[in-house]
Amino acid sequence: MAEEGPPEPSIDFVPALCFVPRGVAKDRPDKIVLTQAELARIIGDTQQELDEESDDEAEEGENAAEDHNDMDVDDHEDANSENRNPQDEFQFQEYDNETNANVTSLANIVDAGEQIPDEDEDSEAEDEVIKPSDNLILVGHVQDDAASMEVWVFNQEEEALYTHHDFLLPSFPLCIEWMNHDAGSEKAGNMCAIGCMDPIITIWDLDIQDSIEPTFKLGSKGSRKQNKEQYGHKDAVLDLSWNTNFEHILASGSVDQTVILWDMDEGQPHTTITAFGEKVQSLEFHPKEAQSILTGCADGFVRLFDCRDSEGVNSSSIQWKVDGEVEKVLWHPTQTDYFIVGTNDGSLHYADKRSPGQLLWSVKAHNEEISGVCFNNQMPNLLTSTSTEGTLKVWNFDGTEAKHVYEHEFNMGRLQCMRQCPEDPYTLAFGGEKPPRCAIFNIKNSIAVRRTFGIADAE
């Protein structure tokens, strides 16, 4: 009787992905060689965190039970009223130094040039080298209760796509943002930030292979046992945006109805925006105006904030209201007064930041929620959109309307995300729920797209 293989995972999909520009990655990523003592320390730290969370949950349960038992039935309503004291949810006056203490020691990183290849690995040597013409694609992958980020290599000329390496994540990834700011270093780095169901943002060095812990973290759950205060987000992180003009600033939006601007050099929140009535699902810094950040909220409002006044930022937003929940917001990369909004009912809305409250056009683009939108910096009137219904659509738009040009069904189940190749905006990556779960597609393959936008046929 033939042996049965492992069962197929019941949950297997790609919720988030991100391109890395060509030429920024090391050709041979460094590898960490851990001593037994260092591995024991990491295991111990992880177990301690789990124990502290368990102790805190148990203590909360005991306190709740004691409060309930001590409460006289006749005074039940009065006691409930007294317990409803208002609390300030976001106290950022004092922060502990936990994030700085979590920086990984680089003492035991082995330079790839010093590594002696095993004879058995010769056949894989070519794939191990990352070429200047390669893009990396960071792919968040969930299989049942395991979460990881896979680093894929994509070479457009060679039509090559394969997994280079991966590392485990502490929880379900929801968003990934690449950045070249390496906190604490004067040199440009190759880093990424990952937002998860866990409120802690993790920062990883992509030039280090086989990492088992992030370079550093943004946020802390706090610990009563160690008398550590909670700071940062209190719930899942839904979106991230790196400020390319102020490279040490990273913005995060959360289910906890806040946006935090993080100073990555300090490892601490710089500004916290609380002017939201629901979870913040999308955000993006303006491509040229470093102080401006656009946010999309489940309360149906798009808000534009000027972050120069950190104290008055909550009362200084410009707003646009749309029907439904805002799933995506995105600035036009070349016509930077304009932006697109995608909602959970499949609608797209186009607006001008100089005209508060007004929408230039709206279109019912999909039957389900918008999961991705991309402009094209080489073709300013070309827009692409994806939806959880599993379809990509291409639009030809101007200041008054959007016309449907082309659509493609990927047969990957619900499309969860879409991102654009930095060097070729016609090449898009998608994450879905069915094999292959991650796909690359060039919209110039469509005759309709080439004809509509005057793109020459490939020879």
Core attributes:
four-stranded antiparallel beta sheet, about 450 residues, single chain, 30 strands, mainly beta, about 40% strand
Strand % is: 35-45%
Q: How much helix, percentage-wise, in residues?
A: 10-25%
- Terminal residue distance: 53 Å
Low-confidence stretches: 64-117
How many H/I helical runs?
A: 5
Beta strand count: 30
Structural class: mainly beta
Can you tell me the overall shape?
Answer: globular
What's the mean pLDDT score? 84
Major beta-sheet overview: 4 strands, antiparallel
What does this structure look like?
The protein is mainly β and 459 residues long. The protein is built from 5 helices and 30 strands. The protein has helices at 36-70, 76-83, 98-101, 125-128, 447-453; strands at residues 12-20, 30-32, 109-110, 135-143, 146-155, 160-168, 173-181, 188-196, 201-205, 208-209, 216-218, 237-242, 249-254, 259-263, 268-273, 280-285, 292-297, 301-306, 318-321, 326-331, 338-343, 347-352, 361-364, 370-375, 382-387, 391-397, 402-409, 417-420, 427-431, 438-442. The strands form 8 sheets. A 4-stranded antiparallel beta sheet has the order 1-4-5-6, with no helix packed on it. A 4-stranded antiparallel beta sheet has the order 7-8-9-11. A 4-stranded antiparallel beta sheet has the order 12-13-14-15, with no helix packed on it. The longest helix has 35 residues, at 36-70.
